[in-house]
Amino acid sequence: MKLSDYLTQEGETITSFAKRIERSTSTVSRLVRGLTDPDGATVRRIAEATNNKVQPNDFYSDENAIEGGPRQPEPSPPGEFQKAS
């Protein structure tokens, strides 16, 4: 289950959830919008706070990608090397 779906289902605000997992409101907001990936400690806190309804894989599957979110670099065509940024 996506974190945004959990919060909606439970009627919980980002602010109150952030307090429960001891993270900033801005961090939780970015997680909900898919703009950042949680670190290991945050994933564990979220899983615990949601009674495992939100799992680590819920943050990393393609299903949760949103337009405007983090993007992976395009693969180079065969025989070409990708320039380092």
Key features?
mainly alpha; 85 residues; 434 Repressor (Amino-terminal Domain); 5 helices
Task: Walk me through what this model shows.
With 85 residues, this protein is mostly helical. The protein has a domain at 3-61: Orthogonal Bundle (434 Repressor (Amino-terminal Domain)). The chain contains five helices and no strands. Helix 2 crosses helix 3. The radius of gyration is 16 Å and the shape is globular.
The gross shape turns out to be globular
Task: Classify the fold: give the CATH topology of one domain.
Answer: 434 Repressor (Amino-terminal Domain)
Number of helices, where a helix is a run of at least 4 consecutive DSSP H or I residues = 5
Shape-level CATH architecture of one domain? Orthogonal Bundle
Helix fraction, binned, reads: 40-55%
Beta-strand content:
under 5%
The helix/strand series, from N terminus to C terminus, equals HHHHH
- Number of DSSP strands? 0
Largest sheet composition: none
Structural class: mainly alpha
**Which residues sit in consecutive blocks of at least 5 with pLDDT less than 50?**
63-73
Give the N-to-C terminal Cα separation: 34 Å
The value of Rg in angstroms is 16 Å
Q: In the CATH hierarchy, what is the class of one domain? A: Mainly Alpha
